Amino acid sequence: MHITDPSISIRNLKLSFGAVEVLKDLDLDVAQGEFVVLLGSSGCGKSTLLNCIAGLLDVSDGQIFIGGRNVTWEEPSRRGIGMVFQSYALYPQMTVEANLSFGLKNAGLPRDEIARKVAEAARILQIEPLLKRKPAALSGGQRQRVAIGRALVRDVDVFLFDEPLSNLDAKLRAGLRVEIKQLHQTLSNTMIYVTHDQVEAMTLADRIAIMKGGQVLQFDTPHEIYARPSCLYVAEFIGSPSMNFIDGAVAEGIFAAPVGDIALEGYDFAGPPGTGPARLGIRPEHIASGPEAEAMPVRLETVVELVEPLGSDTLVRVGVQGQSLWVRMDGQAVVQPGQALQVGFAPARAHLFDKATEARL
Question: ABC transporter domain spans which residues (predicted)?
Answer without folding.
Answer: 8-238
